[in-house]
Amino acid sequence: MPSLKSLAKDTAVYGLSSIIGRFLNWLLVPLYTITFAEAQYGTVSFIYAWVALTLALLIYGMETGFFRFANHDRYPDPRVVYSTAMTSIACSSTLFVILVMASMPWLSGAMHCPDHPEYVAMMAVTVAVDAFTSIPFSWLRYRHRPIRFATVKLIGIGMNIGLNLFFILLCPALYRSWPDAVSAFYSPTFGIGYIFLSNLIATLVTLVILIPDFTGFRWRFDRTLWREMLSYSAPLLVLGLAGIMNQNLDKILLPALISDPAEGMRQLGIYSANYKIAIVMVMFTQAFRFAYEPFIFAQNRTDNNDPDKHRPFRVAMLYFVIFSMVIFLGVMFYLDILRYFIGREYFSGLKVVPIIMLAEFFFGVFFNLSLWYKLTDRTIWGTYFSLTGLAVTLLMNYLLVPSIGYMGCAWAALTCYGVMMILSYVTGRVKHPIGYRLGPLLTYFFLALALYGAAIVLTTGNPWIDYTLRTALLLGYIAFAARRENCFGLRRHRVKTA
What we know:
The protein has 498 residues and is mainly alpha-helical. Helices cover 79% and strands 0% of the residues.
């Protein structure tokens, strides 16, 4: 099907930019863990957890709202939808920065950096600009311009990484030998602030590059459209906040749930560093989401008279599960190698990696399932699911973290996303049946878990034997999927409801 081929192509391009960008950012983890103490890295993780939450608040569901109304029959000109969404987020982001600056003394203390309020100020501007640019990036996705999307993203990521290396590696070396050469813009006491400064500069550069996407058409702010977009997106705001809290609340709560605050920040640093290893699953899910969201709305609009119009959604879910499980096995089979992307003192946290990867997989399946309430304008259901997941996250962190530390955070994440996934599937079967082929989906999932278990049981301690066996198991899984699905062709799939 041409539409699914387009989805696969766009996912590959978005995935390339996401994977390269995340991988390059991943390479900064050893730099941070070598340069800064665990507690300092914990502070960075704590601040970025709040940044993620704030970004969801400032976007308030407008990304999905833009796609919904850009494909709406009552609004034939998507440029009006685009400019309305842009104007809305520009105003709210500006107001946010003003409020943060007015509350700086209190906020810097709450962010565990009372002596450096500039950290908070930099991140406030960064998150405001990121929220604003989310709509131009959505515009590029809507227009099926993944190459420009990926190029702009990679330039910003490259700038961020280059500045990190400049400030954290090069400047200290120059300062020790020739302090006058860098003293005008570098101070050793600024510490982790250079992480935030690098992010700010890269975000501003991205904004400048996107300027051509703000021009070339007449800006209009449609109040009626804006109110409809807010009404549609309001549940998505709660959904987004709850989703981000499910992803980051553990990092916010962990220091507070450990009796010793210093130990809490140290554990947060270990947990966050090992979380980075599982980011491969996050990258794939994010790449798929970038391509899938515009795809589902366009597909729904184009094929209204097709009696089997849900077939592309079923096939997309099937291949999402297959590729996700390949990624899971690839990471777990070669974890002994991948672990060197973090400092040795963080190895004690490697046991969270399989749990976090499965949790992120459940979240990806939940995102696939979410199309039923987005297409039927019943986004309030997404809010119900996410709030339920948030309640699970709060309860399990509260019960588990004081006794088992950061492992409680990992189990809470797995349970949260598992509950959300099951609730969305069960409810969707009643409200808007898609007809997913549950048998093959479960087959691929449990086969991957069985192969992972087999690799653990058959471990000999000899790396040559172990890696050979694991590679054979991984290739066997891929071969099984290729043969079952006719070499990843699409003509084999039959309509079968689950």
